[in-house]
């Protein structure tokens, strides 16, 4: 692989960084998360319509830019640096690739151009705490996470007038309270022949009730979705490989998340270094003390190692190579958690306050572990999938 960025990739990073530094400071982030949607609609319009971020990794045939997932990941690295709340992850990294992989020609032509233009946001609704399992990151995504058996999860039944009807509830759906389109994972076929499929539910459908939920990380807006005999459309054909598509999307989404976490970790480290250079104690800057230097050096090494892993995972996902997104995500989240914890500690008393932004980075790391991890399970499943410890003797 060629590790150098292209001129276009450098331009994406530069343009986004300049825009987000102006439009997405700590106070702007706090104001945005308090809105009903959980993000700044004006900023999203700029990101979507002027910069084309939702369609960055979509083919030009569907109104996209035609870039790779690596380009989308680099864009998310910049949004991660400032913890920009937006529907970008849910729409461009989770929902759009599923529509592209599973949708019929008519569904792709009708939905993807609207997503690419920023006119339509989308969210993936997976029952229970099954999102990382459904995406093939922490376990076998055989389909039981969708509510196998006679009850639980979301059930889909053929409607009398044709189409499908969905019944059930899904919590902790990224942007589920505000997205214009929901991709809902549901079980069909009853108990004996249960099968997981993805269904499309449009905003305003009769029987659909949505509400925003309180979340640990306010910059990741989440909602509860209740479905009471809601009319839905099957995504793709009856024989579509839903589980395979979810696993593939899970790997690319994990790579994007890993790069985003690296951006956040890098920013937390950058702010901490700036602080210890100007904060004085005993007549000298605290950054001159050897103990502080060692702690920040350790963070720097972690961030750079995580960046290398995340960039490789993003490149591999775009090139159709080995699936290493889960491992890169584990390393990225660990680096972010460490950088945020050290930021809180080295900022002293102010680092523990609600008003300081250090706590936002710590919550991002913890929140992403709850949504997509945790780190030890990401690594354990990757090790099992690679058969890393097969035949190894365990000392007692």
From TrEMBL:
Molecular functions per Gene Ontology = acyl-CoA dehydrogenase activity; flavin adenine dinucleotide binding
**Cofactors, names only:** FAD
In terms of Pfam families, this protein maps to: Acyl-CoA_dh_1, Acyl-CoA_dh_N
Q: Which domain of life is it from?
A: Bacteria
Query: Acyl-CoA dehydrogenase/oxidase C-terminal domain: from which residue to which, for each copy?
Result: 255-377
Q: Which residues form the Acyl-CoA dehydrogenase/oxidase N-terminal domain?
A: 6-119
SUPFAM superfamilies linked to this entry: Acyl-CoA dehydrogenase C-terminal domain-like (SSF47203), Acyl-CoA dehydrogenase NM domain-like (SSF56645)
Q: Which InterPro entries match?
A: Acyl-CoA_Oxase/DH_mid-dom_sf, AcylCo_DH-like_C, AcylCo_DH/oxidase_C, AcylCoA_DH/ox_N, AcylCoA_DH/ox_N_sf, AcylCoA_DH/oxidase_NM_dom_sf
The alphabetized UniProt keywords are: FAD, Flavoprotein, Oxidoreductase
Q: What PANTHER family would the database entry show?
A: ACYL-COA DEHYDROGENASE, ACYL-COA DEHYDROGENASE FADE28
Write out the similarity annotation. Answer: Belongs to the acyl-CoA dehydrogenase family.
Protein name stated in the entry = Acyl-CoA dehydrogenase
């Amino acid at each position: 692989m060629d590790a150098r960025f292209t001129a276009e990739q450098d331009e994406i990073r530069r343009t986004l960084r300049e825009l987000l530094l102006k439009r997405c400071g700590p106070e702007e982030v706090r104001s945005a998360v308090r809105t009903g949607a959980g993000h700044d609609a004006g900023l999203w319009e700029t990101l979507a319509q002027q910069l084309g971020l939702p369609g960055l990794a979509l083919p030009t045939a569907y109104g996209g830019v035609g870039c790779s997932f690596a380009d989308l990941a680099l864009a998310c690295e910049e949004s991660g640096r400032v913890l920009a709340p937006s529907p970008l992850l849910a729409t461009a990294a989770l929902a759009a690739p599923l529509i592209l992989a599973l949708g019929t020609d008519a569904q792709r032509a009708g939905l993807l151009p609207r997503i690419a233009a920023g006119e339509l946001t989308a969210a993936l609704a997976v029952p229970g705490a099954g999102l990382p399992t459904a995406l093939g990151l922490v376990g076998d995504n055989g389909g039981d996470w969708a509510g196998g058996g006679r009850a639980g999860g979301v059930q889909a039944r053929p409607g009398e007038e044709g189409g499908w009807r969905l019944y059930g509830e899904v919590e902790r759906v990224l942007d589920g309270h505000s997205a214009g389109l929901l991709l809902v994972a549901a079980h069909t076929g009853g108990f004996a022949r249960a099968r997981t499929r993805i269904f499309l539910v449009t905003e305003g459908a009769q029987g659909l009730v949505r509400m925003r939920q309180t979340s640990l990380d306010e910059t990741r807006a989440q909602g509860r979705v209740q479905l009471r005999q809601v009319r839905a459309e099957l995504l793709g054909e009856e024989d579509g490989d839903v589980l395979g598509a979810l696993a593939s999307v899970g790997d690319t989404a994990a790579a994007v998340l890993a790069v985003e976490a690296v951006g956040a970790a890098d920013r937390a480290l950058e702010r901490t270094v700036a602080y210890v250079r100007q904060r004085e104690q005993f007549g000298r800057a605290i950054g001159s003390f050897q103990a502080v230097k060692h702690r920040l050096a350790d963070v720097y090494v972690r961030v750079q190692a995580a960046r290398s892993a995340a960039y490789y995972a993003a490149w591999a996902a775009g090139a159709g190579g080995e699936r290493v997104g889960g491992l890169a995500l584990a390393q990225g989240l660990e680096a972010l958690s460490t950088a945020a914890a050290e930021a809180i500690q080295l900022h002293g008393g102010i680092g523990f306050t609600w008003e300081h932004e250090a706590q936002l980075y710590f919550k991002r790391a913890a929140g992403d572990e709850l949504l997509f991890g945790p780190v030890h399970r990401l690594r354990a499943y990757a090790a099992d999938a690679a058969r890393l410890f097969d035949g190894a003797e365990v000392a007692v």
